[in-house]
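SAMPLE LOG
Freezer: B-3
Tube label: C17
Construct: single chain, 170 aa
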Amino acid sequence: MGAGGSAEAMKFSDVLILVGIGMLCAGFIIHGWVESSQLDADGADKYEKSVYLLKGDKMILDIQSITDSEGDIAIYFDSELIDEERFTLTAGQKESMPTLESKEYGEYKIEITVDSGSVELDVDISRAMMLDFLIYPIGAAILIFGLQKRGIEQSNKSIDAELELSEEPN
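STRUCTURE (predicted):
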């Protein structure tokens, strides 16, 4: 430790507890993070997102119009156009576009272009196999193991004490 101090080595149980809590927090951040983007005809008028989807995964698109808006939505699978839609929304209107369900594994790309007005959009991916939720049981198992290991270490800890013998008069 700096400045001539000393620190006790970190115990393995403390590392497990730290890793378990870190994994649980990372899972909450991953699933709680909502990506919202604003598009307007004057500035950022184009949005592109590319994702890899397994068979059965869904891509959900919600568009909320800030002002009267018009634009196009194009969806590509491995660089081939599979769906194209035109949208016209009035101010304050919110619309969920048809959900895209992937038929096979591959790269899906969504392009949204705003011709007039401004919109706020949310793109969400719903996984069929829910593999991204595995982080919770793994993190919880590591945390519980670390807490159990720490309890065992605490119960086996030796107590340092000085014993003084005093002479008692007989």
